[in-house]
Amino acid sequence: MAIIPTDLLDRLRELERQVRDLMGSANSSPPMNRISGGDVVIGDGGRLRVRTPGGEDLLYLGRVQPDRAGGEPQQGLVVRRDDGSLALTVWTGSPDTLPDQPVQILDRKGNVVVADDARRRGLARPYVPYPLPAPVAVSRWESTGATSWTTLFRGPGIVQHPRLHCRIAAEGADGAEVRLLCDGEQVGPAGGPDGLEITEVLGAEYGATVTFEVQARVAAAGDTVRCRPLALYGVQS
């Protein structure tokens, strides 16, 4: 019988051990609940979907409904509370009329309490009132008999919305007018002796501090017009 070197037997035993280890590794799966040093990529219209233990959808990240025109997938984010009510969305429910996606926070009743403006810029909701302009003079003038534009109220504001809603109550002779200025520029049309109510685009940058003025004038000397600002709100487009 031929003599087999000892080192060759050792090598055979080591090869057998390595084969057993490889077969064991092939039949076992590594844990898939942790990622280190890499990315998770979901493509081709896929999405990440999280459900509660009761099987209710809690989160969608990726493709959301409805699709855009022509069947193009809409990508977004939908987060629900564990009771099923919507809490946060980045999507548009009407891609044909509102293609840009607003970011919305909803209360438990489904009301949108915070949202950005999807058509222009800034805030859509809530409607934040501007401070009402205060009288310029200490005597709190609320009337004028001047035939030229006269400032009766002035006050600051911070722009957060693309449009502004203003309501001014007035009473005066025929031909009397009232108007609103923002940083010296007239906003919308002037109102008559019955007052002014407008909703107009505000030509100021988001976050800018501006000065509002309420002015009035009469058509003829000897007439009087009285006015008082009632509301000044920033609103969505």
What does this structure look like?
This protein is mainly beta and 237 residues long. Helix content is 9%, strand content 40%. The protein is built from one helix and 16 strands. The chain has one helix at 6-26, and strands at 47-51, 57-64, 74-80, 86-90, 103-106, 112-116, 123-125, 134-135, 143-144, 150-158, 163-172, 177-182, 185-186, 196-201, 209-217, 225-235. It has a seven-stranded antiparallel β-sheet, with no helix packed on it. Strands 8-10-15-12-13 form a five-stranded antiparallel β-sheet, with no helix packed on it. The chain has a four-stranded antiparallel β-sheet with strand order 9-16-11-14, with no helix packed on it. A hairpin with a 2-residue loop joins strand 12 and strand 13. The longest helix has 21 residues, at 6-26. The mean pLDDT is 87.
> Level of helix content?
under 10%
Strand segment count: 16
Rounded mean pLDDT is: 87
Query: Which segments are poorly predicted (pLDDT under 50) over 5 or more consecutive residues?
Result: none
Gap from first CA to last CA: 98 Å
